[in-house]
Write a structure and sequence with these properties.
Layout (H helix, E strand, L loop, with lengths): L13 H7 L8 E3 L15 H28 L7 H21 L15 E3 L65 E3 L20 E4 L9 E2 L17 E5 L9 H6 L12 E5 L1 E3 L21 E3 L3 E7 L14 E5 L3 H4 L8 E3 L11 E3 L6 E6 L3 E2 L13 E2 L12 E2 L2 E8 L7 E3 L13 E5 L4 H13 L2 E2 L1
Parallel strand pairs: 3-13, 4-21
Antiparallel strand pairs: 1-2, 4-10, 5-6, 6-7, 7-20, 8-9, 8-19, 10-18, 11-20, 12-14, 14-18, 15-16, 15-17
Length: 472
C-alpha cells in the first residue's frame, strides 16, 4: 500500500496510452492515478479490506514496472503492459467499492475511472500537465523547486561529479538499479539563491520549543512497512524506513503495542515513532536487504547511510498558543509518490549545513567540502480537534496559511520540525529509497510521525512552547 497521496488528476485515457506507443526510449516509468486519496470516509469495519486492496494496487504497479524495464531492454513496446494492469486495477478498485458499501457507507463516484495508467518520461518535472501545486508545504517553504544546475557541469572542489558515469546522461535512467538517480537530479547548493521565508511572529505567538533526543538509529531499526499508510501489510512501503523512538513499529503494531514498546528516546515519556526513507549511496556495496523486499526486490540498492545527526524539535504557532496533540495522532508529511502524483502534497526540503537558507524540493544538493547533506521536514501543525487519523491519512491535519493561521475548524498543535544530517561525498550517486516507479526522485522524500508522548510530558511540551521556554 498505499496510494494515500494526491491524485495525479489523470485518468489515463486511451489517447494518452496511444501517444506512448512507438516511443519506448522516452517512456521510463508508470503513472497511475491515486485511489487512496479519493477515500474520504471508510467505515472502520472495512478498513483492513480496503488497506489490503490498496496495498494490492501498489504491488501491481511494482510488478508492472519490472515488466516495463524488461520490455525496454528487449526493445518491445511498453504500452502493451497497460491493458493488463488496468484490468487488475479495476478488479482491486471494485473490491474497495464493495467493501465500503457492504459496511454501510457510500463509495466515491467514478472510482473506477482511476483504473487506467499511463507511461511517463523520467525527465518530466513531477507536475502532471494542467496541475498546479496548491501549496502543500508549510509557509516558508514556497519557491523551493529550483531549476539551477551546476554551471557547465564542472567538478566541485576538484572532485568528480559524474558519480555513475554510465547513467546515460541527464533525464535518462541511471543508478545501479537502473531507476535512478540521474545526473539531472542534483544541483550545486552554491548556485541556489536563498529562498526561506517563515511567517512573521505576531503578538501572542507561542515562541518556545521542545526538543526530544531519540538518537540517529544507531541500532539499525529498519523495515519496509508503513503502519500509518499500510497497517497490517508487510512491505507496504516498497522501500526501507529508518525508525527512531518507538522500537515496536512494524506494519502490525497497534496503539497498545506502541504504548508498551521500548523507545530510543532519552526521555522514556516519549514513545512516539518517527520514521523516514533511508538514504543510500550507490557505491556497489550491497546491504543485507539486497535480495529482500524494500531493498533489492524493490530496486533500492546501495549502502544505507546512518545519519550523523537527527534533530526532533516541536515549535509553536506564530499567531497564538498551541494545544496538546492527542495521543496516537498519526501524521504523514510529503508524498512518497510525488514524481507521478505531482507536487500538491510534496514537502521535501534538501539543503547543506551552512546553506540552510537555501532549500530544494526537487533536487539533491551537492555540498562543498566541510558541509553535510540535510533533509528537513516541517510537519502539519493544525489538527481538526476530533480524529487521530483519516481515511486518506491527510484530512485530519492541515498546514497553516502564509500568515501561520490554521484553517477554520482546526486548532494549532506543536509543530514537529525534523532535521536529518548525512556525511556523504558530493557525488551524484546518493538517493532516498522509493517505490520502483518513482525513480528515486528527491521530491518523493517524506516523513511519518505517531504521537505516543505520555500525558505529563505532552503537557510539559505545551507549557514550554506557550511560555516561550526552550525545553528538552
Amino acid at each position: 500500500m498505499v496510494n494515500v497521496y494526491a491524485s495525479a488528476g489523470e485518468s489515463g485515457s486511451s489517447e494518452q496510452r496511444d501517444a506512448g506507443a512507438g516511443q519506448p526510449a522516452a517512456m521510463t516509468t508508470i503513472d497511475c492515478p491515486d485511489v487512496g486519496d479519493e477515500l474520504r470516509e471508510v467505515p472502520q469495519t472495512a478498513r483492513q479490506e480496503v488497506d489490503n486492496r490498496l496495498a494490492g494496487l501498489d504491488s501491481q504497479i511494482t510488478e508492472a514496472y519490472a515488466q516495463l524495464a524488461e520490455r525496454q531492454q528487449a526493445g518491445e513496446d511498453p504500452a502493451e503492459l497497460l491493458g493488463p494492469l488496468e484490468q487488475q486495477r479495476r478488479e482491486s478498485i471494485g473490491g474497495i467499492v464493495a467493501a465500503i458499501e457492504e459496511n454501510g457507507a457510500r463509495a466515491p463516484e467514478n472510482l473506477d475511472s482511476l483504473a487506467p495508467c499511463t507511461l511517463r518520461a523520467a525527465d518530466e518535472d513531477g507536475r502532471p500537465e494542467g496541475q498546479e501545486g496548491d501549496g502543500g508545504q508549510e509557509p516558508g517553504e514556497d519557491g523551493q523547486n529550483q531549476d539551477s544546475q551546476d554551471p557547465d557541469d564542472q567538478d566541485q572542489d576538484g572532485q568528480d561529479q559524474g558519480g555513475q558515469g554510465d547513467q546515460g546522461g541527464q533525464g535518462g535512467q541511471g543508478g545501479q538499479a537502473g531507476n535512478g538517480p540521474v545526473d539531472d537530479d542534483f544541483v550545486d547548493i552554491r548556485t541556489v539563491e536563498p529562498n526561506v521565508n517563515l511567517p512573521r511572529e505576531q503578538q501572542g505567538a507561542s515562541r518556545g520549543t521542545f526538543t526530544t533526543d531519540c538518537g540517529t538509529n544507531e541500532n539499525g531499526n529498519r523495515n519496509p512497512d508503513n503502519v500509518i499508510a499500510a497497517p497490517g501489510v508487510s512491505n507496504g512501503a516498497h522501500h526501507m524506513h529508518d525508525y527512531v523512538g518507538n522500537q515496536a513499529n512494524d506494519a502490525f503494531a497497534g496503539d497498545e503495542d506502541l504504548a508498551n514498546g521500548d523507545t530510543s528516546c532519552r526521555d522514556q515519556g516519549d514513545r512516539s515513532t518517527y520514521y523516514w526513507p533511508v538514504l543510500r549511496v550507490q557505491n556497489g556495496q550491497d546491504e543485507e536487504d539486497a535480495g529482500a523486499d524494500g531493498g533489492g526486490n524493490d530496486q533500492n540498492v546501495g549502502e544505507i547511510q546512518t545519519p550523523v545527526e537527527v534533530s526532533l524539535k516541536f515549535e509553536g504557532s506564530p499567531v497564538g498558543e498551541v494545544t496538546a496533540m492527542p495521543r496516537f495522532l498519526r501524521v504523514i508529511t510529503g508524498d512518497a509518490k510525488a514524481f507521478t502524483n505531482g507536487d500538491a502534497n510534496a514537502n521535501a526540503s534538501w539543503s547543506c549545513t551552512g546553506f540552510e537558507d537555501r532549500q530544494l524540493a526537487d533536487k539533491y544538493p551537492l555540498c562543498p567540502d566541510g558541509s553535510d547533506v540535510v533533509r528537513s521536514f516541517r510537519f502539519q501543525s493544525c489538527w481538526d480537534g476530533q480524529n487521530t487519523d483519516s481515511a486518506n491519512h491527510r484530512t485530519h491535519v492541515a498546514f497553516t496559511d502564509e500568515q501561520g493561521r490554521c484553517p477554520q475548524g482546526f486548532q494549532a498543535v506543536p509543530q514537529l520540525v525534523q532535521r536529518i544530517v548525512y556525511d556523504v561525498a558530493p557525488e551524484r550517486n546518493f538517493a532516498v529509497d522509493s517505490s520502483p516507479e518513482q525513480l528515486h526522485k528527491p521530491i518523493t522524500d517524506h516523513g511519518d510521525f505517531i504521537n505516543v508522548f505520555d500525558e505529563e510530558l505532552m503537557d510539559r511540551m505545551v507549557r514550554c512552547i506557550n511560555s516561550g521556554d526552550r525545553c528538552t
